[in-house]
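User: Structure please.
Assistant: Input sequence and predicted structure:
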Amino acid sequence: MTEQSTSSLASDPAPSGSDAAAAKAAAKLEKPRGLWGDAWRDLRRRPTFLISMAIIFVLLVMAAFPQLFTSVDPNHMDLARSRQTPSEQAWFGYDTQGRDIYARAIYGARASIIVGVLATALTVLIGSVFGLIAGYFGGWLDSVLSRFSEIFLGLPFVLGAIVILTTLNPATEAPDAVKITSLVILSISLLSWPISMRIMRSAAISARSQDYVKAARALGAGSGRIILRHLLPNCLAPVLVYATIALGAFIAVEATLSFLGLGLRSPVVSWGVMIADSRQYIQTSPHLLAFPAAFLVVTVLAFVMLGDAVRDALDPKQK
C-alpha cells in the first residue's frame, strides 16, 4: 500500500456515536409497520380518539372505584329531602326517596358498563365463531348457519327481549340482581350476534382466498390451525370496530329495558333504573331525569366516537 493511500485512510474520520445512533433511528423509522402499528400511529393523532379514550378511562375508574368520587351511600334514604333540587350538599339533588342522585349516578356506572361489556363480549364471541366457520368452509354449512342467524335477525329487538325476559324472569318473582343482570346480558347477546356473524363471515370469505391461507393449506395445516392462526388475526379489524360501537349501544339498550320495567330493577343501581324511577316526575322534577340521562348520553357518545376513530384508522381506503 502506498503512502498516499495510507494517509487518505488515516484522514477519513470514523463514524461517531451520534451518527450511529442517527442511522439506527432512521432504520427504525423506515421499518415497515403492520396494520395494527399503522392504526395505532394514526389513532394517536386523532382528537376524537383521545377525547373518547379520556372519557372512557374516567368512566372505567368510576365503575371500578366509585369511592374515589363520592363517600355517600347511594341507597341511603331520607324522605325529608325527597325531590330536592341540586344544592351544595347534593350537587345533583335528591330522588323521590331522598337518595343522593350524584352518588347513584356514580355507582350506576358499574352496572351499566358491566352489562355493556359482557353483552358485547358474548355477542362478538358467538358471532365470530359462527362467522369464521361459515366463511371458511362455505357450502351447505354456510347456508345453514346463515339461515339460522336470519331467524334471530328477523326478530324485533325490543319484542324479542320482552319475550325472553318475561319468560325467564316472571314479574311475580322476587328481584335477584345477579339473575336479572345475567338475563339482560343473555337477551341482548341472543338478539345481536347475527350482525357480528355477518361481519366476520364477510371478512373470512375475503381472507380464505388470500395467498397466505393457500400456502398454509398446501403445507398441510389443518382447518383449525388455519382459522385460529391465519384467518382470525386478519378478520378482527371490522369486528373490533363493530364491538366498540355496539358497546355504547348495548348500554343504551340496558337503559331502555330498565325503563320498560324488564331490565335491571332495584336494588340494582344503574342509569336505566334511575331514568325509569323518574318517569312520573319529568315535568315537576326534571333533575331526576337530566343527570342520569346526561351520563348515559356521554357514555354512548364516547364509544361511538371511539368506534368511528378505530374504523377510520383501520380502513385502508382512508390512507
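Residues 81 and 98 are 5 Å apart (CA to CA).
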